Amino acid sequence: MVKGGLDQTLDELQDQYRELPSHLSAVVQRLASQIDSTTVKSINVVYFPQLGFLITIPLADSIVPPDLGLDPELYTLQFATERVAYYKDEEMRHLDSSIGDIYGEMVDREVELIRCVIEQVLPLRRQLIAYSETFAELDWY
What we know:
Elements: H1 8-34, E1 44-48, E2 52-58, E3 76-80, E4 84-88, H2 90-98, H3 102-137
Antiparallel strand pairs: 1-2, 2-4, 3-4
């Protein structure tokens, strides 16, 4: 991980990533007020790198994802596990387009910065080796 303060772009991405949980909590509160609580007992929003933002709804043993009572024109089932259904709605698509794959962007920026540092350090390596060989030959006694 690259230390903060080295690159403004990376710092901004890291700040945005750190604020993501509180931002998603606000999104969940808005969603919870729009979804019928008799059908959906619990709702959450998660971010998966490369998959984006998804609404998660736990599944009861007797409920399969299409039977959650959600308007299929508003909520599109992306995939489901045995216990959770993952949906996208317009707000999740907006988060995908506005925030995007923030984790991937952070990693890409870190790799780019590390590559730049390596390119600057490698030429110095040869000089340091030459200096160390010279100093090794000096008689210090």
